[in-house]
Amino acid sequence: MTGNKKKGTAEVKVSPYTVEEALELLEQSVQLNNLSGFSFGMALSDAVEILEKEKKVMDNMKKPSKEYNDFEKEKIELNKKFSEKDEAGKPKIITERMGDFIRSEFDISEAKKAEWGREFRKLEKKHAATIKEQEEKDEKYQDALKESSTFVPAEIDTKILKKNEVNGGQIRIIRKLFIVK
Fold first, then answer.
1. How far apart are the C-alpha atoms of 44 and 39, rounded to whole Å?
2. Percent of the chain having pLDDT more than 70?
3. What is the pLDDT of residues 76-135, one digit of tens each?
4. N or C: which end of the chain has fewer CB within 10 A?
5. Residues in a beta bridge with 18
6. Are 69 and 81 in contact (CB under 8 A)?
7. Is 1 helix (H, G, I), strand (E, B) or coil?
8. Are 124 and 131 spatial neighbours (Cβ–Cβ below 8 Å)?
9. What is the band of 165 on the pLDDT scale with cuts at 50, 70, 90?
């Protein structure tokens, strides 16, 4: 299951997962929290700790700068300014479902879109360097997701799971998280 590379006389273990797959595995690992046993709990805790460190590195990689957050705030204020208002004077929001996702945006009428567009282009020009920096961060993040993860599954013995009622979904996750002997 794991790839091994010889480096001199020492063996270096290589992750079978990309960073993206490892992050998905971290999300899936919560489905194992109800399984008991000290040995399994320790093995799971060790695996999750490694995966969480990788997630933290990735989260920091894509974290927007203060300047980019300022741009986002200005963009929201611009959208509020040009959006249609409800009876209470609050900006109207259009929400639509797209499969599993919900997309929301400010309701800006066709009559106001040209003026909004001019103002938005000014805002983008003002923050051009910041936007470019964030786009570069996003690209590096996407590239890093495709790289090899630092997570290498550890070996566990099936005996440590005997006291548990494990379902098929949990078994699939266990087989990804560990080398089951």
1. 9
2. 93
3. 999 999 999 999 999 999 999 888 889 899 999 999 999 999 999 999 999 999 999 999
4. C
5. 148
6. no
7. coil
8. yes
9. confident
What's the rounded Cα separation, in Å, for the pair 181 and 170?
Answer: 16
**Is residue 15 over pLDDT 90?**
no
CA distances from 8 to 5, 11, 12, 78 (A): 10, 8, 10, 60
Taking residue 43's Cβ as centre, other Cβ atoms within 10 Å add up to 21
Separation CA 93–CA 107 (nearest Å)? 5
The token duo for 29 is 């690992």
Among candidates 117, 129, 110, 111, which has minimal Cα distance to 79? 117
**88: Cβ–Cβ under 8 A, 6 or more apart, which residues?**
none
Single out the residue of 54, 65, 69 nearest to residue 137, CA to CA: 65
- Residue 2 token pair: 């794991």
Q: Dmax over Cα atoms in the chain, in whole Å?
A: 75
Where are the chain's structural domains? 3-61+146-180, 66-144
